[in-house]
Amino acid sequence: MTTGSGSVKGDVLLLVGTRKGGFILSSDKSLRTWALAGPDGAGSEVFHFVYDPRNGGRVVAAVNQMIWGPEIQFSDDLGGAWTSGQRQPRFSGDSGQIVDRLWHIEPGEESEPGVMYVGVQPAALFRSDDSGDTWSGVKGLSTHPTRDQWQPGLGGLCLHSMVIDPRDTNRFWVGMSAVGVFGTSDGGENWQPMNQGVRADFLPDPFPEFGHCFHKLLSPKSQPDVLYQQNHCGVFPSDSAG
Length: 242
Description:
4-stranded antiparallel beta sheet; 1 helix; 18 strands; disordered N terminus
């Protein structure tokens, strides 16, 4: 393994976000040797670091800086140079809320080349239609009737997971701590809790509609109706899209 901030080469990329910046590991298909480039954003916390294959390929980082605050940053040359958008994810002035952290970046599908989502703390979802240059809040989630009952987990009240249905971009799911999984089938206008059968042994009601200390939500691209969520009480699969 080599270290440093040199060029990234190889067929396989592994993007790693840390409290000391972002690192890109690269290898050929044998995976026998790796080169390490970075840190990018040294001294900043990179909560999520992803590769967006659309439009020629772009690396996107959710950077949380102690001085300058949270910021989405982009690199079109695998970390050689970085830029940030014109308007970062921020709540409207009359909401009384402040974006404390950026937690999760989710590029849209090939059929929507400019669409990108980011999950933030306190738990909310923002959408960009211009490849991350400007952002607007998904109000259907931010104003959900249950929102005033959402409680933070140890890491805060955060939206840290997201899955988009590759067959229907209006259909997606988010995971929030300590809330649970919510889903939409109309592009974010309306949301439903999707936690039936998930245990929360630490609560008086062990099967609440929401209020789960939830850690991760994933789905295989080949089986978009299959979801897996992991929380304090175990790993829970669903073969019915939640």
